[in-house]
Amino acid sequence: MVEFPKKKEHFELSCFACKQKYEIDDYGKFYHCTRCGNLLEIKRVKNYFGGSKTRLGVWKYVDVIPIWDDRNIVSLSEGWTSLVECQNVAKILGLKSLHVKFEGLNPTGSFKDRGMTVGVSKAIEQGYKSTMCASTGNTSASLGAYSSRAGIRCMVLIPKGKIALGKIAQAIAYGAEIYQVEGNFDDSLRVASEICEKDNKILLLNSLNPFRIEGQKTVAFEMAEQLGRAPDYVVLPVGNGGNISAAWKGFKELFEDGFASIPSRKSLPKMIGIQAEGAAPIARAFIAGKRDSIEPVVDPHTDASAINIGSPVSWMKALAAIYDSGGSADYVSDEEIFTAQKLLASKEGLFVEPASAAPIAYLTKIARAGKSDEYEQMKGSIVVSICTGNGLKDPNALLKGVTPDQLQTISADAKSLQKILA
Ligand code: F0G
Question: Which three-class secondary structure string do you get for the chain?
Answer without folding.
Answer: CCCCCCCHHHEEEEECCCCCEECHHHCCCCCCCCCCCCCEEEEECCCCCCCCCCCCCHHHHHHHCCCCCHHHCCCCCCCCCCEEECHHHHHHHCCCEEEEEEHHHCCCCECHHHHHHHHHHHHHHCCCCEEEEECCCHHHHHHHHHHHHHCCEEEEEEECCCCCHHHHHHHHHCCCEEEEECCCHHHHHHHHHHHHHHCCCEEECCCCCHHHHHHHCHHHHHHHHHHCCCCCEEEEECCCCHHHHHHHHHHHHHHHCCCCCCCCHHHCCEEEEEEECCECHHHHHHHCCCCCCCCCCCCCCCCCHHHCCCCCCCHHHHHHHHHHCCCEEEEECHHHHHHHHHHHHHHHCCCECHHHHHHHHHHHHHHHHCCCHHHHHHHCCEEEEEECEEHHHCHHHHHCCCCHHHCCCCCCCHHHHHHHHC
